[in-house]
Write a structure and sequence with these properties.
24-stranded antiparallel barrel; 53% strand; mainly beta; single chain
Length: 508
């Protein structure tokens, strides 16, 4: 059976985008929170059959518990097909995170991973800036850095049997994001998977221009039942502790004046999660229940917890249905977004409808309709359809999108590409007519690995881009990757906007 997820948009590193989209619950590539790309790219490869397997970016606590239970009964997991049959997984989940999993087993003879140290050096130049990145990884330690202009980041990490120490820049992710959720994140409820946030603890940051992250030193210890973490630095201090069992988890978090209690419970395929947080005189609550094909969420998030100029009080309903050749979902979200003493009756209603159809092993149709109604500005209606063809290393995409928000805006592009084992090239031609900023259309732009760009198109004009990359082995140890992106946008009454990006990456 062919899986719809296997035909996702090939891009930047298509496996990174596919995993980030699944993990964040985003409806499309354009809606992936930028920090999820960062977290997938810097995460360690997960050894599924390791005796000390822990939850993290790719696996939840429940999935880890299911793997451990399966291995206790049936032995090591030796194929992705076998993993897809384990409770908590599916062919779609495995298609999304499979490239980041290792099924190496010490119980059977075979080639073990003898590479003890890996290193990556990356240089990137554009018409306006130059940037450098580098990281080195060992079995129990890793270090990375990035610099461009006056911005930059660095992290170092050491793991022992006594715990994990992380220094530099990092993100904190516990609970449902009320007390601790550093880094940029869009509050998207466009799919059922987005109703529940994945609490992944500490994650290092490896960005040219990091923002909204913690700086300092952090420590984390995990056992079979207990996890403890603490961090401190110039941006504040905090900590987290939780207790895990086969079907659930309960935890407590404190971060710079805010405290919260969160829980997660799973039974018979139903997930129940929630968090209650307090800071000063404000109290925030977020809870969700998710089953097979449906989900409900409710939230009360005052202004000082939302990270916005206003609070948010809302409820959501999501439904999805999957068959062998098609997948459909419908999500509705209603929210009150008051601005105290200014506009306390601001209301928003959003609806997403999605249809994905595997017409044949080569052709797929991906259509979506979204509606956003606000009582303080014109409604926004968006319809988009992608027709995709993929045959061997060749692929093509035709997109047509129309948006109405005060006035109509239109965008369309035609793209063709080739992706082989050692080389890839993509050519895209885009046309757009978007007379007002309110009707702007966001469209993902292909680029080199480590760069995620979703510009907003507006005005009238055309754009063209060419992205090519190649990979070669040097001295049987080094992998050289080169990527070139050239593009230009021509808008009426504007000067041409050319772009030229070159990236060189060496992996050891």
């Amino acid at each position: 059976m062919a899986c719809l997820a296997c035909l996702s948009l090939a891009a930047q590193e298509e496996s990174v985008l596919r995993a980030a989209q699944y993990l964040s619950g985003a409806l499309s590539v354009e809606e992936i929170p930028a920090d999820w790309i960062e977290r997938v790219e810097t995460a360690r490869r997960v050894r599924v059959n390791a005796p000390d397997l822990r939850a993290g970016v790719f696996l939840s606590d429940y999935q880890v518990a299911c793997i451990q239970d399966y291995r206790a009964r049936s032995g090591d997991i030796l194929s992705l097909g076998e993993l897809a049959l384990v409770d908590g997984f599916s062919p779609e989940v495995v298609a999304a995170i499979g490239p980041f999993l290792s099924l190496e087993s010490s119980r059977l003879p075979g080639a073990a991973d003898t590479v003890r140290v890996r290193a990556t050096a990356l240089a990137r130049t554009t018409l306006s800036s130059v940037g450098f990145k580098g990281k080195v990884t060992g079995d129990a330690w890793r270090a990375g850095g990035a610099i461009r202009g006056d911005n930059g980041s660095f992290y170092g990490e050491v793991s022992t049997r006594f715990g994990r120490v992380l220094a530099g820049m990092f993100q904190t992710r516990w609970g449902q994001g009320l007390a601790a959720w550093s880094g940029f994140s869009m509050e998207s409820l466009s799919t059922v998977d987005a109703f529940v946030r994945r609490a992944t603890g500490l994650s290092p940051v490896w960005s040219y221009a990091p923002s909204g992250v913690q700086r300092g030193v952090a420590y984390e210890y995990a056992s079979a039942r207990i996890r403890v973490a603490a961090f401190g630095g110039p941006d504040g201090w905090g900590g987290h502790v939780d207790y895990l069992w086969r079907n659930g988890q309960v935890g407590f978090t404190y971060v710079s004046g805010k405290g919260s209690v969160d829980f997660r419970y799973n039974t018979r395929g139903v997930d129940l999660v929630g968090e209650v947080a307090t800071g000063g005189k404000a109290v925030a609550v977020k809870s969700a229940i998710r089953g097979r094909g449906w989900a409900l969420q409710g939230r009360i998030v005052p202004r000082n917890f939302s990270g916005k100029k206003y609070g948010e009080y809302g409820a959501s309903l999501g439904l999805d249905r999957k068959r062998e050749r098609w997948k459909a979902s419908l999500t509705a979200d209603a929210a009150l977004l008051p601005i105290p003493s200014k506009d306390p009756r601001r209301f928003q209603l959003r609806v997403w409808a999605v249809w994905q159809w595997l017409i044949s092993p080569v052709w797929t149709l991906d259509a979506r309709f979204t509606e956003r109604y606000r009582n303080y500005e014109p409604p926004r209606t968006d319809f988009r359809a992608d027709v995709k063809a993929a045959s061997g290393p060749w692929l093509g995409v035709l997109r047509m999108e129309s948006v109405r928000c005060g006035e109509w805006g239109f965008l369309g592009y035609l793209e063709g590409g080739y992706k082989g084992a050692s080389a890839a090239a993509y050519l895209r031609m885009t046309g757009f007519s978007i007379p007002v900023w309110a009707a702007r259309i966001y469209c993902y732009e292909r680029d080199a690995a480590g760069t995620f760009s979703v510009p907003a198109y507006n005005g009238r004009g055309i754009a063209a881009s060419l992205v090519s990359s190649c990979k070669a082995r040097l001295f049987h140890r080094y992998t050289l990757r080169m990527t070139l992106r050239a593009g230009c946008q021509w808008r009426i009454n504007h000067a041409p906007a050319p772009t030229l990006n070159f990236q060189l990456q060496i992996d050891c």
